[in-house]
UniProtKB/TrEMBL annotation:
Protein name as it appears in the record: ABC transporter ATP-binding protein
Keyword line: ATP-binding, Nucleotide-binding, Transport
Family: Belongs to the ABC transporter superfamily.
Domain ABC transporter residues, every copy: 4-233
Molecular function per GO: ATP binding; ATP hydrolysis activity
Amino acid sequence: MNGVEASGLTKRYKERTAVDALSFAIGEGEMFALLGQNGAGKTTTIKMLCGLVRPTAGEARVMGHDVVRETAAVKAILNVSPQETAVAAKLTVRENLELIARIYGLSRAEAKARAEEMLRVFALTERAGDRAKKLSGGMQRRLSIAMALISRPAVLFLDEPTLGLDVRARRALWKLIEELKGRITIVLTTHYLEEAEALADRIGILSGGRMKALGTAAEIEAATGTASLEEAFLALTEEEATA
């Protein structure tokens, strides 16, 4: 079974086509990076896959569940770590984790146990009693991802997980993300090409709502006759940049 699959997935807003007939599949346990300039259609695609926006045409499935006809089932097996760090600033690190666990229906004892697990996995135990607002940007991003994982989703969408972080914090988060590979299906959106190349099993490049390339970094470079992923990305998105 694929973790995520789309066939002819399309979204139109009046005269504008934001996503144009996307067809692709992401294997269960695969880490997939979706690249594109601002306005390329990444956010709209993710919203459709999460059941937040209804497609104009085509279909998509998450772990075999149709995102339109089985929206509740889809939402129950996925989670999202948004670009904006989604933590409650006045709650402690542990309280943030326990709150999310309780929202997902865990008992008080289960929520405490799951929170302790996430604290350990994400190296947050020493800061468990600190209010989230006292954490550094990198630590807050770490907590945000831990909160997204506390429900043990089958599919996780990571939207710009390292945006605005310094090099050291970014590398530390890369290490944590790498450790998730193979355990769950991850869809990563990022503007950092080196991040996609370092973390993803495969990469999709969107431009103008269309999938311009799909494969490993090496396969995309070979298909475009370029020497690097950056050169390939620039070549594939040149039309959009000059539109």
